[in-house]
Amino acid sequence: MIDLLRRARLRLLQMHYESGVGHIGGNLSCLDLMLTLHHRVMHSDDRFVLSKGHAAGALYVTLWSLGDLTEDDLKSFHKDPTHLAGHPPPEGIQNILFATGSLGHGLGLAAGVALGKQLRKDPGRVFCLMSDGEWNEGSNWEALAFISHHRLNNISIIVDLNGLQGFGSTKEVADIGVLADRFRGLALDVVCIDGHNPESIEEALRLDPADKAVAIIATTVKGHGVSFMENQMAWHYLPMNAEQYLQASEEIGRR
Amino acid sequence: MRNMLSSTLVDYATRPEFVFLTGDLGFMALEPVRQAAGPRFINAGVAEQNMVSVAAGLARTGFKPWVYSIAPFIYARPFEQIRNDVCHHKLPVCLVGNGGGYAYGVMGGTHHAIEDYGVLLALPHLTAYVPAFAEDVPAAISRIDAANRPAYLRLGRDESPQGYQPPTYAPWRKVIDGVGPTLVIVGPLAGGILGALLQMPEAKRPATWVLAELPIDASTIPPSFYEDLRDSDHLIVVEEHVAQGGAGQMIALALLVGRAAPKRFEHRYARGYPSGLLGSQAFHRKESGLDPGSIVAAL
Residue B270: its pLDDT value, please? Predict the structure, then answer.
């Protein structure tokens, strides 16, 4: 697993560097979560919704690691024309259920998928990966109330708690206190983990309580694994130059 | 029309793909649907954004959701969810808005939907259905079901004269074979105007068409409408909707592009709140010149 995480991280860096694309910080913070989920936890009946659509790069690399996307596909990232846009597209890529990118949509969509499974008595869980800044959006609280009320116990919410959002830290912008307490207040089962520890991630993602939805609050580091990117808001936006790419690749390769 | 919606959807409720969501509205109307659909009738609460996303999630996994609220609440608050979650994915979600136009009258502007289909028709893959008569509702629902794509169903009140039998539902229908200007009326507004026109001597009645589906382009306009227009060279389009994005603009464009523009074109549309005062649907229609008397006077 460690080797897979390293290879995927290197491929993610390469893809973003070759395409001159930013958003790398929030991709690096959730890549371990996404890879562990897809490689170690999800079955064919399970569904994945990426609510933080700006982590499209991490999703494409995850799909590449599963054999759903090819090297050539990844080379088209952000190019003209492509299915691999900066945010997941509505069609053209198998195993991407929804186009996301505007925050606050994924959880309601995931709730619809989970509700559909319950109505049909279909097996499988729905995993929804969200950002932390995204909890500023009111629609998420609507969705959470819906999930709680309808006892959608087949849904797992994963929050990539990297502490940074678009133009400040989550504490500076709209501090909502301890997210876990808010979730518990809405009758969710809450687990707090280190979002870069594959064993902890796998254990939390395997939780399948009979009567509650699960929220996994994963503490992560924006720009994880690259010293000059870690916890730097700038890397929500900036593309890497050649020197930075070289250094980032060396640091990841050494891990 | 709302009761007709309810009784029609009861027949659909046994289908495995049927699911109905309401934004906490439908008292004294949707109870039969709730009864028939059981767990597939969901009161999503006063949370329209989430309701539309949930519907998209259901649709993406094989359901055909009907999503209900009053017209002003179904398109504006959850607009981004309609665009991103439903329309971009071409999902068969039908948004049902009860009480389009000024239907909620003196409830005030927050409860009016006078820019609803214009706003929604700016989105890809969506068709708006504006049935004019109660009998239209089952046919419109059947077409929505068959189209299997995003839809907006704008409901109103059947205002046709007592005993009036409308022609079979169609997107374009000729309801009076007359002379003089050619009249096109969108949706339930047609009922009251039709009542006034049918009081006129037969020889003076205008050729009158009822329009029930949007958008319009040259290919959707029936050939017999062009024939009427050639005879009259004068078109009047009437709708309970603002000018921007309305049927009048769409028809005008289609005729211009098709080199079939009449010499005279008049557009009668919802003018908002010109006096700043509020009142019944009839009051607001009159302020906009949409009442039967104003239409007859304009002929």
Answer: 98
Alpha-carbon gap, residue B194 to B175, rounded angstroms: 8
Residues in A touching B56 (Cβ below 8 Å): 98, 108-109, 112
B42, B56, B80 member nearest A109 (Cβ) = B56
3-state helix, strand, coil in chain A (%, to 5): 50, 15, 40
Using a CB–CB cutoff of 8 Å, tell me whether B62 touches chain A: yes
Q: What local confidence, expressed as pLDDT, does residue A235 receive?
A: 87
Written as six digits, the tokens of B7 are: 């009784």
Domain ranges of chain B: 2-155, 172-298
Give the pLDDT band (50/70/90) at residue A19. Answer: very high
DSSP code for B39? G
Q: Does domain B172-298 have CATH number 3.40.50.920?
A: yes
Residues B46 and A146: their CA atoms lie apart, in Å, by 11
Q: How far apart are CA A169 and CA B278, in angstroms?
A: 47
Domain B2-155 class, CATH top level? alpha beta
Pair of tokens at residue B251 = 């028809």
> pLDDT tens across A122-143, in order?
999 999 999 999 999 999 999 9
B88 and A CB contact within 8 Å: yes
Q: How many CB pairs under 8 A join A and B?
A: 96
CA distances (Å), origin A118, targets A122, A144, A150, A209? 6, 17, 10, 15
Domains and CATH numbers, chain A: 2-254 (3.40.50.970)
pLDDT tens-digit series, residues A83-122:
999 999 999 998 999 999 999 999 999 999 999 999 999 9
Query: Hunting for tokens 């990117």 — which residue is that?
Result: A229
Q: Determine the pLDDT at residue A94.
A: 87
| B57 in Cβ contact with A112 (< 8 Å) | yes
Instruction: Please state, in angstroms and rounded to a whole number, the distance separating the CA atoms of residues B240 and B248.
Output: 11
CA-closest candidate to residue A63, choices A18, A26, A31: A31
Do domains B2-155 and B172-298 share one topology? The answer is yes
- Nearby residues of A43 by Cβ (< 8 Å), 6 or more positions away: A124
Residue A176 has pLDDT above 80, yes or no: no
The model's pLDDT over B130-166, given as tens digits with 9 standing for 90+, comes to: 999 999 999 999 999 999 999 999 999 999 999 999 9
Least confident segment among A17-26, A42-51, B126-135, B163-172? A17-26
Sequence length of chain A is 255
Q: Among B42, B54, B90, whose Cβ lies nearest the Cβ of A108? A: B54
What distance in Å separates residue A118's CA from the closest CA in chain B?
10
Low-confidence ranges of chain B (pLDDT < 50): none
Reported ipTM: 0.97
Residue type at B54? Answer: V
Instruction: Report H helices in chain A.
Output: 2-19, 24-36, 56-65, 71-75, 106-120, 138-149, 170-174, 179-185, 198-205, 242-254
Question: Which residues, in sequence order, are bridge partners of residue B207?
Answer: B182
Task: Determine the average pLDDT of the residues in A72-78.
Answer: 97
Query: Of A126, A170, A140, which Cα lies nearest the Cα of A29?
Result: A170
